[in-house]
Design a protein that fits this description.
Layout (H helix, E strand, L loop, with lengths): L16 H4 L3 E8 L5 E8 L20 E9 L10 H14 L5 E9 L12 H16 L8 E10 L1 H17 L16 E7 L5 H8 L20 H10 L6 E7 L7 H13 L4 E6 L11 H12 L3
Helix pairs in contact: 2-8, 3-4, 4-6, 6-7
Length: 310
């Protein structure tokens, strides 16, 4: 629902800039493999403006600088600008919690086709191409310098969790020559260190049955006619089947999720453990579907994961 709430496509980064300081956001535009132009919101803190030389908890690491890039995939509604203050708060806390002076963090938030200022119309295949274009943008050092060690974290919320997981699977399987996507559009050798799945569902088919549980209603039987079939269980199996190293996976479940039933996160965790993946599920108390990472408990889980990447 890219046009909900009303006027979401006309929102601007500058409108949220005061809430984000000292994180600076800029918009960049890239092309997906099919030529559709999409927008990215890129946020970071200017490290040069911070003096932490007297902080004994920050190590003076003389090794290669580490650059952790978090590629963020939004849920199914609205646009990126209203999400930027929450993402900025993660960056601000990470800056304080970082373990080394030689580490820095950047968020690359993806606006799917048809959302915000991106062109085109949304579809599962198109959004997959948008995600791979963002991954290629990061892997080509568009936000990093050549002397930095790049570490990539994919983070998605709701629908975005499925986009993030699918993108991780394509990249990992491509590195091991087990392609599950168009080989020409999947970047090789991208160091995906972690995957954050915030309030994920198991599949669109399962969500259809959850929304329409009554067996006498026809809707739950219409899954063959759906235009989108995001399936996180299938994706976890693809990740596990690859000989390439799998990323650490964090599932953030909202305790009071009003949209996704509790068993979806439980099923994903159970499957991940059966597949011998490094997977962890955390239930965020008092959280609704859209605010698991905004609540203190959820925010701390993400920051703890990310700070160990740097």
């Amino acid at each position: 629902m890219p046009s909900l709430p009303p006027f979401s496509r006309s929102e601007k980064i500058e409108d949220y800039a005061p809430e984000c300081k000292p994180v600076l956001w800029r918009e960049d535009r890239i092309e997906a493999a099919d030529g559709v132009e999409i927008a990215l919101a890129i946020g970071s803190i200017a490290v040069s403006g911070i003096d932490d030389s007297a902080d004994p908890d920050i190590q003076a690491d003389e090794s290669l600088s580490k650059h952790v890039v978090i590629i963020y995939f939004q849920g199914n509604g609205g646009s990126l600008p209203p999400r930027l203050p929450a993402l900025a708060s993660i960056l601000k806390l990470l800056q304080k919690a970082r373990k080394s002076r030689n580490s820095r963090y950047t968020v690359v938030a993806v606006s799917y086709r048809g959302f915000w200022t991106s062109r085109g119309r949304p579809s599962e295949s198109g959004i997959s191409l948008d995600a791979l274009a963002a991954l290629r943008y990061v892997s080509n050092k568009r936000v990093s310098s050549l002397n930095e060690e790049l570490r990539v974290v994919l983070w998605g919320q709701s629908l975005g969790a499925a986009v993030a997981a699918s993108t991780a699977a394509k990249a990992i399987c491509h590195d091991s020559d087990k392609d599950i996507g168009p080989a020409s559009v999947v970047p090789r050798h991208v160091p995906i260190s972690a995957l954050v799945m915030e309030t994920p569902f198991t599949s669109v088919r399962a969500m259809l049955a959850a929304i329409y549980p009554q067996k006498w209603l026809p809707y739950r039987y219409l899954h063959p006619f759906l235009r989108s079939h995001w399936d996180n269980k299938m994706v976890l199996r693809q990740i596990a089947s690859s000989p390439s190293p799998a990323p650490k996976i964090l599932i953030l479940q909202a305790a009071d999720d009003e949209l996704v039933p509790d068993n979806h996160a439980l099923d994903l965790e159970s499957l991940g453990k059966d597949l011998k993946l490094n997977i962890q599920r955390v239930t965020v108390k008092s959280a609704l579907h859209h605010d698991a990472s905004v609540k203190r408990q959820g925010r701390e889980q993400i920051i703890n994961l990310l700070r160990h990447m740097g």
